[in-house]
Negative transcriptional regulator, PaiB family (Bryocella elongata), 209 residues
Amino acid sequence: MYIPKFNAEHNIPEMHALLRAHPLATLVTMHPSGLFASHIPMVIHSEESENGVLRGHLARANAQWEDFDASVEALAIFTGHDHYISPSWYPSKAENHRSVPTWNYSVVHAYGTLRVIEDASWLRAHLAALTHQHEQQFAAPWTLEDAAPDYIDALIRGIVGLEITITRLEGKRKLSQNRDERDRNGVIAGLDAMATPESHAISEEMRKA
């Protein structure tokens, strides 16, 4: 990934926080026929290695878990908030007319060797962790025990587990860091005026940056 110095994110806890907040990964692997991608939720286990360990699962019918090239790193892409940026929001536009549209966003690329796991106990623990991560926001969280045991057993037989011990992380926050403070404030004001959840999310990230 191309990352200008002013857009680089090196803080591992910050990158892990993005993985937790935006857990739907684009998992890319190399196969004899070329690249293969799936979109799956993944769980980051920060405590298990320096860069963390990612766990997820695929439907057994999804061919990605078979015949992939284990000698080539797998890539999991996690995309945070993003938004179109209008040049009309830059005060400098009226002065020099040297501004064009762009896009602000945050993203993390996680690389590592992919391991396939078919152990039922491992899969059950993974599903419990995945469910807990997303259900804990509710007053009455759903758990695996709320479903019929034979139903869960059948579902587990229909999936395979995936684990990536992350060997390297690349983080990028493109939040108008290349503009001066006046233009950045203009972008924040423009995003706030749009008053959408995504525009507010990006303006808040810009304030923090």
